[in-house]
């Protein structure tokens, strides 16, 4: 098995015209052969973006993702490559990664190198121009077995879930930005959504801002959908649990869940979905109730998520949690002051009253003011 693999990659290198992708079929076949009993599926990720996608996804072909493999041309110095920004991003977003130059295989867990094996000397292929003998075959199979055994740990608290989602959402944002920057003809589905966002939501939105907005919307849409079901969950099932009242979100997931999303983003959306699928979402939601954070934990989780994803954006948008009891006291106090001190008998429902919130965040104050105004209107 390994002898056949080494012959294929050494032959490809000897031809002199091989690119990195030329070696992919041989590596894919080798990994699937060794993982056959575990029904391992190896998918080559699309390569339209530079440094956006790991080269291979290793999974069960349905939902469960084992990990990712990043390959570099034979002879590449892996010690230098592991310190590149590209690999650092991968280590942050993906807990189970193999880095290889087709001869050496380095296994990382949560960004830490835990095992490495060299299955043959590349120098023999280079100098003697022949297939090198296999070395450390047993150790290589054991490395792959360790890689295959990885399972995404179940997440039980909001902070850990927010951090995991944030790391993956940053990766999605980068991919979306690279797709938009390379879409010269501006005909991709994502560019269509960008134009729609500009036309109906934010007229001066640039592609970097949209990439951030799109990535957050997809992740948070998946989270919202997951919070509404105790059944099996995946990217394809998410659409059924998106509220009908949020039209633009349903439009996005019509494409993401039911349509044919770009392959460049499909795999990372699947990855985010797989994390949410095994998260103890009920326990996470219950924590917000126990801590007295109101009746809508989906809104309050956004503060936790944004603190991990982009703390500066959190500050800029004013996304800070205020206890519901405090919100109620402040809003009702303002309502009484309007009636008693300013002669506005309808309080917040008075048509002459304009309410401004310069740090709206999750719109908690505005929403509560609306409810108080409705109470005044109904009472009068």
Keywords for this entry:
elongated; 17 helices; alpha+beta; 3 domains; 380 residues; single chain; tt1808, chain A; 9% strand
What is the count of helical runs? 17
Order of H and E elements: HHEEEHHEEEHHHHHHHHHHHHH
Unreliable stretches: none
Fraction of residues in β-strands: 5-15%
- Average pLDDT confidence is 88
Class from helix and strand fractions: alpha+beta
- Largest sheet, spatial ordering of strands: 1-2-3-4-5-6
CATH topology of the largest domain: tt1808, chain A
CATH architecture of the largest domain: Alpha-Beta Complex
- CATH C-level class of the largest domain: Alpha Beta
User: In total, how many beta strands?
Assistant: 6
Shape: elongated
Helix content: 55-70%
**Nearest-angstrom radius of gyration?**
26 Å
Count of domain modules: 3
Largest sheet: 6 strands, mixed
Terminus-to-terminus distance: 82 Å
Could you please describe the fold and organization of this structure?
The chain is of the alpha+beta class and 380 residues long. It folds into three domains: 147 residues, Alpha-Beta Complex (tt1808, chain A), CATH 3.90.1570; 129 residues, no CATH class; 56 residues, no CATH class. It is 55% helix and 9% strand. The chain has a six-stranded mixed sheet with strand order 1-2-3-4-5-6, sandwiched between helices. A hairpin with a 2-residue loop joins strand 5 and strand 6. The protein is elongated and about 95 Å long.
């Amino acid at each position: 098995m390994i002898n056949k693999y080494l012959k294929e990659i050494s032959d490809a290198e000897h031809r002199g015209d091989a690119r990195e992708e030329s070696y992919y079929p041989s590596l894919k076949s080798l990994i699937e052969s060794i993982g056959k009993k575990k029904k391992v599926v190896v998918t080559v990720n699309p390569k339209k973006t530079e440094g956006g996608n790991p080269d291979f996804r290793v999974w069960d072909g349905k939902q469960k993702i084992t990990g990712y493999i990043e390959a570099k041309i034979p002879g590449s110095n892996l010690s230098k490559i592991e310190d590149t920004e590209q690999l650092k991003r991968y280590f942050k977003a993906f807990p189970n990664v193999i880095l290889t130059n087709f001869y050496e295989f380095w296994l990382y867990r949560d960004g830490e190198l835990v095992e490495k094996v060299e299955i043959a000397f590349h120098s023999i292929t280079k100098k003697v121009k022949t297939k090198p003998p296999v070395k450390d075959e047993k150790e290589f199979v054991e490395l792959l077995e360790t890689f295959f055994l990885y399972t995404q740990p179940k997440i039980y608290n909001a902070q850990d879930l927010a951090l995991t989602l944030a790391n993956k959402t940053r990766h999605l944002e980068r991919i979306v930005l690279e797709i938009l920057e390379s879409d010269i003809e501006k005909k991709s589905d994502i560019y269509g959504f960008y134009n729609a966002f500009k036309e109906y939501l934010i007229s001066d939105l640039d592609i970097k801002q949209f990439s951030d907005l799109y990535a957050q919307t997809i992740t948070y849409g998946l989270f919202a959908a997951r919070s509404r079901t105790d059944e099996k969950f995946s990217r394809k099932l998410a659409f059924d649990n998106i509220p009908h009242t949020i039209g633009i979100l349903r439009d996005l997931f019509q494409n993401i869940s039911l349509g044919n999303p770009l392959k460049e983003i499909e795999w990372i959306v699947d990855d985010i979905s797989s994390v949410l699928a095994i998260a103890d979402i009920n326990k996470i939601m219950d924590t917000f109730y126990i801590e007295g954070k109101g009746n809508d934990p989906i809104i309050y989780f956004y503060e936790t998520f944004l603190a991990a994803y982009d703390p500066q954006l959190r500050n800029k948008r004013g996304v800070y949690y205020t206890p519901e009891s405090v919100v109620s006291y402040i809003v009702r106090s303002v309502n009484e002051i309007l009636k008693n001190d300013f002669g506005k008998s309808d309080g917040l429902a008075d048509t002459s009253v304009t309410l401004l919130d310069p740090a709206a965040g999750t719109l908690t104050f505005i929403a509560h003011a609306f409810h108080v105004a409705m109470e005044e209107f109904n009472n009068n």
